[in-house]
Amino acid sequence: MDNKDSEAEIHPLKTEDVKPQENHENSVERRIVSKQSSRLSRLSRWRTAAFFISLFLCLIIVFAFSFIIPCPERPVSERTWFRNYDNAAAYQFLAIEDVNEDKVQDVLFAFKASNGSSSFNRSCLDEGLPSPCAFIAAVSGTNGRALWERPAAEEVEWMECGIKQLGGAEAPGCLVVGKPVSLTAVDLRTGERAAE
Prior knowledge:
Elements: H1 2-10, H2 12-68, E1 89-97, E2 106-113, E3 133-139, E4 146-153, E5 155-163, E6 173-179, E7 182-187, E8 193-195
Antiparallel strand pairs: 1-2, 2-3, 3-4, 5-6, 6-7, 7-8
Helix pairs in contact: 1-2
């Protein structure tokens, strides 16, 4: 310790030079470290901003698909439904086809009556047939609502539905063989007569 004191007495400026030099080196190191830390803090701010922007965009997309863009409405299906035709006799024919293109199978059937159901108010006389006559009907598979009905013949001998391009139509149809001899093609979608 005496050596240090004596040297300090001999060279008083030398020890003072060493301390500022050390302080200068420390301050340079601090500046370098502070520049690096400021770069890192800027980088972390950008990363944080990018994270929150992407999170915000994801939430907007989820919100748009959840609430703003509507889902297609599907018809509400009833588990059971009942349809009554007064004073009618059923033929032994039943077909299942998608008549109204709602991706639910609908029911096609034939019955004999003097008038159709109250939904359509069609009679055999409208088609020039004697009363009672055979009607073809299509009802919705979701709720039993009548889609269409039409008088087809005096009697139904045979009937086939789901025939593609029947009578040149794009939609499938039903072919009805009636008695006395008649051949009728019916459009499956509308129930209108396609050809005879």
